[in-house]
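$ fold --in a.seq
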Amino acid sequence: MPDREAKERGAPPRVHLRRLSLINFRNYRVLSVDLEPAAIVLTGDNGAGKTNLLEAVSLLSPGRGLRRASYGEIASDGTHDGFAVHASLDGPQGDCEIGTGTMGQPGIEGGRRVRINGATAKSADAMLEWMRVVWLTPAMDALFTGPAGDRRRFLDRLVLAIDPAHGRRALDYEKAMRGRNRLLQDDHPDGKWLDAIETEMAETGVAIAAARSELVTLLRGMIEHLPSDSPFPKADIAIAGPLEEMSGQMAAIDLEERLRKSLREGRPRDRAAGRTLEGPHRSDMIVHHRPKAMPAALCSTGEQKALLVGLVLSHARLTGELAGMAPILLLDEIAAHLDQQRRRALFDILEELNCQAFMTGTEASLFSSLEGRAQFLAVAGGTIGKIA
């Protein structure tokens, strides 16, 4: 959809990756591929490297990407000089060159460099000014039945796409919590130091809870706009956690004091447990299938997939509205568990959202309804070629 037509329909401006270049990235020693603005379909055998390409794009956002892999795992086997990802893009902010990776940092696992238009960025958060990336992978199919930690990470990625400061808050909280846990194992921990750490945890923890609560409220509103006959059913979402449940009902300063007091009083318990047992790191995201009035965890595999796709699409729409740019969507093996009706509906919604969407699959036939509307690329053994 041309951006002019998209604007007339109220869709946010598109961010278009024009070219993606990789060096020593998993099974790609050297790769450079030109990309078209809308849907991009990557097909090939399992293990060909389709997901590796999505992972590379996911690293054009803060964090460790869609696999959460260590940087040593990402660099090609036998490589001792790290990896590099480079993208040329255009969007509402204009043209931009973004590069990231660990090239020239052999053995360094603590972080990766980010360069934007030739200048070194202070942090990976700077990429959020130019693009937002949202993904859905097969590993997330067990989101509703798996551990609460997976749902928290999913929720926090959703928050990060609309609130760039959220990632830093989460890192600060985790760092403070690790410091507290270590201190509690000392025979005679420094009380003043613990007070200072718990104050930081209270401040960042309440901010994390508030950001999550705001996201859920906004997402609920977006879900309400879904038609009742949508192939992707409406979901009811909530957060189970004392901080999130009280966010908005108490002043932030009072909630901080409540958590600070609870952490202080819980020191003996946490020392015995070897970890902190209260805080936003213990919260959970609760999802229900609204038409069936059923917890998502009890739905069929197909119903869970449809719920998850619906959530991601609603969030993509929300991100476009709040960020002023359509997010780039990474949909790994998206068509495998959707029937033909839902596949067609998905492709139409992606076009409506005006986003550049990368989709993978083993068979190009699964994406036949996108012929003439998408760029089809064949992936095989670290190479990419166009499908006629």
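$ fold --in b.seq
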Amino acid sequence: MDQIHLMQVFVAVGEQESFVAASRRLDLSPAAVTRAICGLEAQLGVRLLLRTTRNVRLTEAGRRYLDDSREILASIAEANEVAAGVNSAPKGHLAVSSPLMCGKLFIMPCLIEFLKRYPEVEVSAHFLDRVVNLVDEGIDVAVRIGHLPDSSLKALRVGQVRRVLCASPEYLARNGVPQYPIDLQRHTIVAAAGVSPSLEWKFGGAGNPVTVRIKPRLTVTSNDAAIDAVLGSLGVCRLLYHQIAAELAEGRLKIILADYEEAPLPVHILHRESNFGSSKVRTFIDLLATSLRAHPYMNHNDRARRELLMSPG
């Protein structure tokens, strides 16, 4: 049987964890899917899947073969695109991921422009306040905020963002303005898990970093919910500058302890190496990188930072 076909069937079964779901995805009969998997296992001389009456699970060899098969099939698709001259005109499906508010503010304008320029491209945008696995979830391009772990993914640095402490004027009038990080221990803390997952908040300033252990009164997984809480004068929260820029400009929130901020967090565009030769991926990355590098929230310098701090509100 055709090796590429067998790999395609196996990837579908492995990702769906179901012969029936894989048959629907591939528009094949369940019997044809079963024959393909049995033929592949016989050819390799190894069990790739564990079948029960209720589910299908990958063996350890199956998990490794699934990763390898994905890479091989992506490389074949890329080679076909190049040979067919697709690189001259982006088309096909593109999957993009970023944190929720980053997606709304930074990514959506680029996606709209990209889709207007290239009518043969379709995009799935996944804006989530969690780390998305590009390989497992089929993402072509992702934007990540923060320091990156070691990875086989390719990363392009495009900027940096501030992580700031903020509270409403009403809360500060009622409870006082913290002057030092240690003062936070007597304030009500709202924790946005996506921005500050640790209970130990680190601060820089004057070359003397300090760590304060905080005890949140409210912890939320949604940054939007955290913003609602501080706008409601519940307490102090640590958020990314771009997430509250509008509220700061309107005077509904104020930055506190600015002199103790840590160094800004890096922002990277991530992509899978095997997909970088694709026209749609390469073209979108170029557009997105240019846009992010020019955005004032991504790369404002120390002078701009002081101006922002001194602006009304």
